[in-house]
Amino acid sequence: MSVTDSSPEESQKASRQKGLVVINTGHGKGKTTAALGLLLRAWGHDMKVIMLQFVKKSTANFGEHRAARKIGIDIIPQGAGFTFGGKNEAENKRLSIEQWNRAKELIDSGTYQVVALDEFTYPLKYGWLPVTEVIDVLGKRPQNVHVVITGRDAPQELIDFADLVTEMKEIKHPLRKGIKAQKGIEF
Amino acid sequence: MSVTDSSPEESQKASRQKGLVVINTGHGKGKTTAALGLLLRAWGHDMKVIMLQFVKKSTANFGEHRAARKIGIDIIPQGAGFTFGGKNEAENKRLSIEQWNRAKELIDSGTYQVVALDEFTYPLKYGWLPVTEVIDVLGKRPQNVHVVITGRDAPQELIDFADLVTEMKEIKHPLRKGIKAQKGIEF
Q1: How far apart, in whole angstroms, are the C-alpha atoms of residue A181 and residue A23?
Q2: Which ranges in A18-165 belong to alpha helices (H)?
Q3: Cα(A84)–Cα(A88) distance, rounded to whole angstroms?
Q4: pLDDT of the residue at B16
Q5: Is there a contact between B117 and B94 (Cβ–Cβ < 8 Å)?
Q6: Binning pLDDT at 50, 70 and 90, where does residue B2 land?
Q7: Which contiguous run of DSSP H or E holds residue A76?
Q8: Domains in chain B, CATH or no CATH each
Q9: Do B62 and A85 touch (CB under 8 A)?
Q10: What predicted TM-score, i.e. pTM, was given to this entire model?
Q11: In terms of C-beta density within 10 A (0-12 exposed, 13-18 middle, 19 or more buried), how is residue B127 classed?
Q12: Percent of chain A's residues with pLDDT above 90
């Protein structure tokens, strides 16, 4: 007779409204995908949403970019790809700083009710951006702005600051069985 | 200098095409949300996608339902809500069997390239549907059909059968801080 899950029916009864800082971290799949689902859901409620992608190449044109274009949501990738070290890392750092400056403006403006910072943990992990500044910006943001952060190895300070943190844990991955990444599923 | 994540750029180089069975389980947030993101991504690639929701009330009209209507994706809830036991459980069982019959037809037909069965672990967990039959249907499905299953406590036999399994693990939840579920974020 007990409720075994936090069903939406139940959750709606709770009583305080505020923008959340949501983190999807861990080494499993579904971090970016869940952020996309969240944007879609918020967009379903006529909220204004945007995703800024770090590290992902500016030329990226995966399913999410195509879908976003089709429905008029902005997903803006700006990075040099997932190779770290050397010249590529310097480029990733430069592009991440630019992207973060854009993110700060967007968050501060309050124009968007959901701002997703995809793969944002990498610039923090590699020290391209100071975590303290990020927390400072998040702490001072307009009250109604939700910020969703994805990526592996979220820094502990950020986890401490966040409201909702989920670890996506890999239990089983098809690449281990030699099955290629599938269009529409993983990209 | 190493690649620290399975980036889409890398994954696209792999070489075998096949429909996957994907499971999002665990007690954290993001299971349904990641399934939604996956549908959106596949839809971005012009794939035909659908979500059948178990247990969730047929009157459910959350962000995902609104968004789906806006873009023409079918999300069909059919359940009696997340209260288990008694009369409500009998109703959930009846509705789950009906929904599963619909799911079997959809999967067998090959009309949809992605069929998501949301909260599908509950009918299995409570014994309303036999896991063996489910695995049998999945095993015989057309080769290009991806099936995405969400819900807590996925049965081990199903995990053993699946290709990609992720556990969403709760690290931190705002309800613990007395913050209500936020529109656009959780529903």
Answers
A1: 24
A2: 31-44, 63-71, 86-109, 121-125, 131-139, 156-161
A3: 6
A4: 54
A5: no
A6: very low
A7: strand A74-78
A8: 18-168 (3.40.50.300)
A9: no
A10: 0.88
A11: exposed
A12: 78
Q: What is the pLDDT of residues A111-160, one digit of tens each?
A: 999 999 999 999 999 999 999 999 999 999 999 999 999 999 999 999 99
Token pair belonging to A183: 């269009």
Unique residue bearing structure tokens 């949300």: B33
Query: How far does B167 lie from chain A, in Å, by closest CA?
Result: 5
Given CB atoms, is A14 within the 8 Å cutoff of chain B? yes
Which of B5, B20, B39, B40 would you mutate first to test chain A, the one with the most A CBs within 10 A?
Answer: B40
CB B110 within 8 A of CB B142: yes
**pLDDT at A175 > cutoff 80:** no
What lies within 8 Å, CB to CB, of B39 at 6+ separation is B49, B51, B73, B114, B116, B148
Say yes or no: A48 contacts chain B, CB-CB below 8 A.
no
Angle at which helices B31-44 and A63-71 cross, to 10°: 80
User: Residue A83 has what pLDDT?
Assistant: 87
Structure tokens at A61: 């044109």
Q: Write the DSSP symbol of residue A13.
A: T
CA-CA distances (angstroms) from residue B119 to A7, B96, B164? 11, 10, 17
- Coil/strand/helix, residue B160: helix
Note the pLDDT tens digit of each residue in A62-95.
999 999 999 999 999 999 999 888 899 999 999 9
Determine the Cα–Cα distance for residues A187 and A81; give it in Å rounded to an integer.
14
What is the spatial distance between Cα B174 and Cα B4, in angstroms, rounded to a whole number? 30
Taking the C-alpha atoms of residue A103 and residue A130, their distance in angstroms, rounded to an integer, is 14
